[in-house]
Amino acid sequence: MKKIFAILALFLAFSISANAQDSQKNPDTEATADLTKLTQFIALKENPKKALKFAFYDKNKALMQTTLSPQDKAQIKTTIENELATNLTAEQLEKLKANTRLYEELTN
């Protein structure tokens, strides 16, 4: 009986631990989602895609921290805006900024 109880307790502990890990956001998944949203709106070549995915990964990883100050968040937004300006043409950037909802979603 004690063995059955011990096995059941271990099973529940591992189940809870696995669920806790699944509920955390994955910065790579979030970066891929951000890039997908952008590429559905604007056609991109391969090099800008790689650079922007890396920037979105850094953004999402940084935003996972719970101790970010408003200044830190503003710095992250500025970094993403600069990456977008660097990797998109002027016409693409203008088109993206015209879609304010998507632009804010990608930069925040």
Structure in words:
There is one protein chain. By secondary structure, this protein is mostly helical. The protein has one domain (25-107). The chain contains six helices and no strands. The chain has helices at residues 2-23, 27-41, 46-63, 70-87, 90-98, 100-107. The longest helix is centred in the first third of the chain and has 22 residues, at 2-23. The mean pLDDT is 87.
Short note summarizing the structure:
With 108 residues, the chain is mostly helical. 83% of the residues lie in helices and 0% in strands.
Overall geometry comes to elongated
Total of domains: 1
Please state the average pLDDT score: 87
Q: If helices are DSSP runs of H or I spanning 4 or more residues, what is the number of helices? A: 6
What is the C-alpha radius of gyration, as a whole number of Å? 20 Å
User: What share of the residues does DSSP label as strand, in percent?
Assistant: under 5%
Helix/strand order, N-terminal first: HHHHHH
Query: Helical amount among residues, as a percent range?
Result: over 70%
Unreliably modeled segments: none
Number of DSSP E strands: 0
Largest sheet: none
In terms of structural class, how would the helical and strand content be classed?
mainly alpha
What's the N-to-C terminus distance? 54 Å
How is this fold's topology laid out?
Layout: H1 2-23, H2 27-41, H3 46-63, H4 70-87, H5 90-98, H6 100-107
Helix pairs in contact: 2-3, 3-4
Annotation keywords:
single chain; 108 residues; mainly alpha; elongated
